[in-house]
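User: I'm new to structure prediction. If I give you an amino acid sequence, what do you actually give back? Let's try with this one:
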Amino acid sequence: MKYYLIAGEASGDLHASNLMRALKERDPRAEFRFFGGDLMASVGGTLVKHYRELAYMGFVQVVLHAGTIMRGMALCKEDIVSWAPDVVILVDYPGFNLSIAKYIKTHTQIPVYYYISPKIWAWKEYRIKDIRRYVDEMFSILPFEVPFYAKHQYPIHYVGNPCVDAVAEFKAGYGETKEDFCTRHGLDPERPIVALLAGSRKQEIRDNLPIMIAAAKHFAPGTLPKRYKGKPLQWVIAGAPGIDKEMYDTYLSQASAAGDTTIVFGETYPLLTHSYAAMVTSGTATLETALFRVPQVVCYYIMCGKLVSLLRRLVLKVRHISLVNLVADFTVVRELVAEEMRERELKEELDQLLFDDTYRRRMFEEYDDMVLRPLGEPGASEHAADKMIELLTKHK
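Assistant: Good question. You get back a string of structure tokens that encode the predicted 3D arrangement of the chain. For your 396 residues, that looks like this:
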């Protein structure tokens, strides 16, 4: 069969490439044509346009490059009609992809599948109308999306979560001990590691890492509470891909007051494997931290915190921002967001994560029962590919 895929950013490129690989294993005659990235191209097929040529973030950037985006959209529509695939598979990227879905459904008989739902459960819930009209099948990677769509009388398929796959694959092939990891990075294997995952974008790092470090200073050697009988803590920053080490140098010098602090790049999973606790900027990393069963606090500072907190209550349709709590539909981990992301609050939460055994045990139990269990077993790409081929074969 012929599969046309559209992914508009790096994460979509990753998930789409895994899906393509799974489709190829099940359909040896599979042909691919796509808007996407290097990972999709590595699987095979024809890359029509790279997502870098269309990926603009923020209102101003989108307006400034509106002509480029519109030309890309027109090319995509024409290319799909010309190639006449058996299915169009959209991967997240709702602003672009929902427009493509509308065009394909109103001008052709080609079925439209959506892999990784837009976050309409958080905002822009009105997009459900377009999804119901123009998307034939939705394949979800978040279990709480199933009841959300059911509320709108639109049944979807939960296929599992790619984070579960990635973590399971890593654990199966990783054999390094804590002593080995610490030796490579100049750390003490006898001392607990606290991981600092301050985000993947420069602004996130600038906003969150200084507060994380300020809170860490309260747990420097000589200031630890008397009830703590363990060895001094050591702090390890997970360097974000694409961010130069020079950007972190200022923060590392500030962090020296907290005790031993270092940075590692490209080793977030090994770091989490050996961490005792973590401070995590919201995003996929919160879910990954839970999958490694590391007690965490979610940190997301935003300027004008009080205003943002008000807008959050008015605009967002969900009580939580972290995927851990969204999956659980419960406050498993504390979220310090906007005006709540302050040194004092973070210090107080760290005190519990580090030294309160009952608090830590409760978090482990809720990870297992309310997060890992609903996410299910590995195999998201394979489950999605199986279901897509089943549906396409049935409706041919």
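You can read the tokens as a compact description of the fold. Here is one thing that stands out. Residues 56-65, 307-312 have pLDDT under 50 and may be disordered.
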